[in-house]
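Hi all, long-time lurker, first post. I run a small reading group and we've been trying to get comfortable going from sequence to structure in the token notation. Rather than ask abstract questions, I figured I'd post a concrete chain and ask someone more experienced to write out its structure so we can walk through it together at our next meeting. Sequence below, copied exactly:
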Amino acid sequence: MIEVKNLCFSYENKEILKDISLTIKEGDFLAVIGHNGSGKTTLSKHLNGLLIPSKGDVAVDGMNTKKGDFSIRKNVGMVFQNPEDQLVYSAVEEDVAFGLENFGVPQSEMKVRVQRILKVLGIFHLAHSNVNELSYGQKQLVALAGVLVLEPKYLVLDEPTTNLDPKNKKNILSTVKKLHKKGLTIILITNVLEDIRLATNVAVLSQGKLLWQGEGNHVPEKILRRANLYG
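-- Answer (accepted) --
Happy to help. Here is the structure in token form:
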């Protein structure tokens, strides 16, 4: 379980997040939706300790992110909006193995896990390809593979469909849906109303505040209007 309690965050004297509280249970598919600048990405970076609250707390399975426990980042995998921000090596197979190397996983196990996750995501044929020669959608899948190979309990995706064509967007969302069905807890950050249809829970952010949250994937029209997400 990820618990966010009275989270406030300021940067350069500007208040970005304002008293946000929410709970993400194991097995949830939470969509966090809001317009650009609403604080979505800042919130997402608090979920695995990349950012630390100015006030309030974030706890992952009872571990407070303020304590800097590195295992939190292993348990809460994060895929950034721009896949190139987390691609390290030029060869796909080596890049996906990067996190496992950092955790000291034996080479024999590493190879098995990398090949398995590439097959799960349907990109095994790209194992020896140069990352720089891949399409944007393929890079997004490689970045996702590099996170999933660590076998996290929670997966945070920051606007994963941004800059994707309709085909690749459908592929990414379909992949995320399958991962959720297999038991992975998903936190999807988006500004696209259409993307929340897969969610079991929705949280709406506006101007750094949690405007609304509820079960299911239907958000009241009046809330969408207040968040500048309608129409």
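A couple of things your group might point at:
Helices lie at 40-46, 71-75, 92-102, 107-120, 136-148, 166-181, 221-226.
The chain has seven helices and ten strands.
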